[in-house]
Predict the 3D structure of the following.
Amino acid sequence: MTRDIHTKPQLPKDFYVNDLKRVLTKLQRLAQDGPERLHCVFDFDHTLTAGKRPGENVGTWDIIDELLPEEGRKRHQEIFQAHRPHELAGKLTVHEAQGWWSETLNVLCSYNFNMRTAENDFLEAVTLRSGVTELFHLCDTAGIPTIVLSAGTKDVIELLLEKYHLKASAILATELEITPEGRVLGWKHDTLIHMLNKHEMGHAKLAGMREQRPNIILLADGLDDVRMVEGVDDVLRIRVVDPRKDESSAIESYLEKSFEAGFDLVIEHDLLPVVRLTEQLLGTHK
Ligand SMILES: [Mg+2]
């Protein structure tokens, strides 16, 4: 593999960009520093995943919700409605997020749903977004670590990656307590990851990663995911468009919010532009 650091990086097509100059400066840095100073941090639900039904990308928790009796779904919905407006308004505090997620997990696990059923239903409804396989292979070949950091569950993430023969360097997500038959008994409190502690630096498993590899490509769909990693000049933040049912799907407002929050780039539909971008950074673009 050769890397021509004298070639100025360009932005491949299909990216939405606000501040092109800033992005090109970051790309230049990432290209010059090379793969040995780079790692990737990926969100899971709605970022690496795509719904099989057109226009419908369901997350891990939507699938688990379906396995609850009506009373359980209602309780889950009530908890969601109590906190979601604060999240949408950008007013969610870490304390509230922790309470929200703990309460949700307590309710869901109290119904002792079967994780194997949840996993099968997940595989029925969800696939990997186009470009994910290529991106993992590219990183693997170049020795770039891939970290999946998610407020979903570790079992489901492992299952989907295994199905496509992909391996992340690390998966950080909440772990459930499950019997050998698949019955969910509870959740491991010390593994809790919610939308606001989805933060790379807070996890002992990743201690040292940033020191060795200061540059990061962050890929995520949620607005708060912008804070999954710290840093300004050494982090390229890419947002995948996947509005929830209660969010506007108008691209103009989506872009405005994304750039205002601190994302550098926005993409729609698939991750192939990220593959092209990474290839270019590695100097292997065909
Ligand atoms: Mg997500």
In short: The mean pLDDT is 89.
